[in-house]
Give the backbone structure.
Amino acid sequence: MSEVSKEQSGARVPGPASAPGEPVVSKAAGSAGSGGAGEPFLSVRDLRIHFQTDDGLVKSVDGVSFDVEAGKTLGIVGESGSGKSVTSLGVMGLHRSANAAISGEVWLDGEELVGADPDHVRRLRGRKMAMIFQDPLSAMHPYYRIGAQIVEAYRVHHKVGKKVARTRAIEMLDRVGIPEPHKRVDSYPHEFSGGMRQRAMIAMALVNNPELLIADEPTTALDVTVQAQILDLIRDLQKEFGSAVIMITHDLGVVAEMADDLLVMYGGRCIERGPAEKVFYEPQHPYTWGLLGSMPRIDREQTDRLIPVKGQPPSLINVPQGCAFNPRCPYADVPKDGITRTERPELKQVGAGHHSACHMSQEERTKIWTEEIAPKL
Ligand SMILES: Nc1ncnc2c1ncn2[C@@H]1O[C@H](COP(=O)(O)OP(=O)(O)OP(=O)(O)O)[C@@H](O)[C@H]1O
Ligand code: SF4
Ligand SMILES: [Mg+2]
């Protein structure tokens, strides 16, 4: 069984008791649960994950809320260190280490998981929710054969014999593009290349047809053909089993192709979220403008000018007061009616299901977007 999916020891440390969350504004029916008719399969409310370190309190995730409906894909984008992986590990209940303080609510199919018994949450991992980890080594045990690990992951949730489970493991290895899967099933992780290990880990995540799949940079180390194969596999899972998918990626091509909704993270917070086509083609936050400009896109010639987001991401120990993007924002000095620099912008509705956390008026943003930004992208 994987290192990560084994029980993580350590008691749950209560988070900030009544920290104000961002408004719940999307399709969710509030915080009274989820998973019922018309309610999202996954509903995350005001999730905070802080780590106590020698340097101070690291606010890796600081009040994030979002929903994912069954059969839909949420794309999460943001620079390195913005809290994407910590958010997803939090949803999976994998941050129960002693230095982690977790608060907020994670509703999965009507069950709240942050306050749930860790043993119960562990039992949900695999069948109900599974994760493709950014680092394949962290998900596979080095001393056990690849096939044995997939067999065990399958048998935890299915009452089948070893032979049936082995056949299933070989089938999954084949589906993720491992050559000669009937032979490679008996390899150890170190006998696989990095790309093959990643594919084997994907096979393990998908073996139980999870209802929620979190894919954290699932295709980064893979070549284009295998990448397409993996994305097809995830689409098949979604089509066949109506799975909800969270896709964390730096590749906007993948986001444009796969995501129904998009969430942009900055400094441990959500600064924009909404339907993918809106966030992609009518973004409403200066950071999203920069991010879109600096990311390679399959629909743009490589020779076109890319606009990098200047400056460094904020320290998560000393997040700037007010808007965390302020030190890097080209529009920080645009006058904002009666709002001081120390006032933090909360997510506000800017369109149907579309929210952005910026103090600029809608008129100002629209003007800058249409006149300055869009023509350059
Ligand atoms: N256990 C921990 N203790 C202290 N800080 C942590 C811990 N885990 C993560 N962090 C910090 O939380 C922040 C967010 O990390 P995270 O891995 O979520 O970033 P990310 O958005 O996934 O980045 P990348 O795109 O590079 O994968 C980082 O600054 C990281 O150093
Ligand atoms: S609130 Fe101000 S600093 Fe922050 S993104 Fe908007 S314009 Fe830039
Ligand atoms: Mg990450």
In short: The longest strand covers residues 56-68. The first helix runs from residue 84 to 91. The radius of gyration is 21 Å. Residues 285-376 form one domain.
